[in-house]
Design goal:
Structural class: mainly alpha
Number of strands: 3
CATH class: Alpha Beta
CATH architecture: 2-Layer Sandwich
Radius of gyration: 53 Å
CATH topology: Fusion Protein Consisting Of Minor Coat Protein, Glycine Rich Linker, Tola, And A His Tag, Chain: A, Domain 2
Distance between the termini: 164 Å
Helix content: 55-70%
């Protein structure tokens, strides 16, 4: 009996030891699983943080790039606007000079034609005709055509002859202004 009791105790101790080892192994397995789970969670958290940082950096870079593009576009638009304004000012100044030159040269041209004009003795004071004069560079008359007749063919023809006789007509030396004098419409009446 003592042997049986001793064998039972040994068996009990063995079972207790096995149970303890099993519990220890189970605890180790659970600890290992918990560590792995914790490590995976940490890895996932770090990956999320890294992804969020990357997205934030990309957004910041995209925003900076967009702002740079907008700034460059704004600067380009301002530069183009200034260039347009400057070109407009230059064009307006050139047109003003051209208008002034045109007025003064028209008077000089008209005077030169009138000095060459032999007015018909039959013309009355109420007559008037409009003539279109086409010039080539240098002021030579290429064509003189009555566009609005006075009703008196002799009067109209005398104006055409006077224009042709006065050729070359005085024109500005500036070649850019010649375009204003390429075709002139002039009115003539015997009073002038």
């Amino acid at each position: 009996m003592a042997k049986l009791k001793k064998a039972k105790e040994t068996e009990k101790k063995k079972l207790a030891k096995l149970k303890k080892e099993k519990q220890l192994a189970e605890k180790k397995r659970k600890d290992k699983a918990a560590k792995r789970k914790k490590a995976e969670a940490e890895k996932k958290r770090k990956a999320d943080v890294a992804r969020k940082e990357k997205v934030a950096k990309e957004k910041a870079a995209a925003l900076a790039k967009k702002k740079r593009k907008e700034k460059l576009a704004r600067e380009k638009a301002e530069k183009e606007q200034k260039a347009r304004e400057l070109a407009l000012q230059k064009r307006m100044a050139a047109e003003k000079r051209a208008q002034q030159a045109m007025v003064s040269y028209r008077d000089v041209i008209r005077q030169k034609i009138q000095r060459s004009w032999l007015k018909p003795s039959t013309s009355t004071s109420g007559l008037s005709c409009k003539i279109r004069v086409k010039l080539i560079p240098g002021g030579s008359v290429m064509d003189a055509t009555v566009t609005k007749s006075s009703g008196d063919p002799l009067f109209d023809r005398s104006v055409e002859v006077a224009v042709l006789k006065a050729s070359p007509l005085p024109i500005p030396e500036d070649p850019t202004l010649f375009s204003y004098f390429r075709t002139l419409d002039l009115n003539f009446n015997p009073k002038e």
